[in-house]
């Protein structure tokens, strides 16, 4: 008897490489924070860490809300966050110090070196390192089914990077001018522009996701163009901030907000497209008894899906309804991948049957 291959959709067991990467990234993040603690003292570090962490729950909730329809594995999201907070921050500090030293030895003055470091080195180095999390996840390429997935993973890496970087910035402000300066900087970095790093790196996320989910010639340019977009946005903000001009900062902020709105539009359009495709694929499974016309109507609008989950929780079937909706969504994604990339018939049938089995076990209404 031939055992069908496991479905990558349902088999969520993490690879050893992913676990090792998560652990190493986490340890490196702790190492960077320990160095900041030793350099700034307990009082300054405690205040800086509190300010850096304060907006994180809201920011994480905002990013993860984009991923409601087809949630990514939690361990993959944690890896992206930890990579940004650990490897990206640690290596960025090292490379930036080396770059500053090279420009100083080349005869550039201190003011020029500071400007180059802020406007050139930081964007080029930091975006490459944050974006590397997306490239590493290419090994789990079936987890990235659309542009939204790329945006979510990139945003997680950006939030991790920003959290640790902000501790350093707040600590520096505290050491120079006290609590007031740290709080003032928090208003700018933590309240006015908390999504800077996620937005920059999302350009890379869009590029990686486009390259994975398209089969046209443009896909070969998507990743470098995404990286270029991330660097330019990052450099725009850093350059505007370094001028001290309120008009320049406002202009850069406006550009970043326009890009943020564009990213949100992408996720909304993709979500609607996926929901509409459910209406095209799922009725074919009516003969199985697992999907009725009423189920299709329930699955094909976000409002109806929420209402169904609310009803199911009221009758003690909340988990089953969540599993059913998730499996139906994954079944639609399976058809979309097969349509986009082609699929081995045996593997397609095995994955399809596993998903239908999940729906059968969950359906209790």
What does this structure look like?
With 365 residues, this protein is mainly alpha-helical. The chain is built from 13 helices and no strands. The protein has helices at 16-53, 56-65, 74-105, 110-136, 147-177, 179-192, 196-213, 219-243, 246-281, 293-299, 302-314, 318-341, 345-362. The radius of gyration is 23 Å and the shape is elongated.
Keywords:
365 residues, mainly alpha, single chain
User: Major β-sheet, in short?
Assistant: none
How helical, in percent, are the residues? over 70%
N→C terminal distance: 34 Å
Sketch the topology as an H/E string, one letter per element. HHHHHHHHHHHHH
Secondary structure topology:
Blueprint: H1 16-53, H2 56-65, H3 74-105, H4 110-136, H5 147-177, H6 179-192, H7 196-213, H8 219-243, H9 246-281, H10 293-299, H11 302-314, H12 318-341, H13 345-362
Helix pairs in contact: 1-3, 1-5, 1-6, 2-5, 3-4, 3-5, 4-5, 4-7, 4-8, 5-6, 5-7, 7-8, 7-9, 8-9, 9-12, 11-12, 12-13
Summarize the structure.
With 365 residues, the chain is mainly α. It has 13 helices and no strands. The radius of gyration is 23 Å and the shape is elongated.
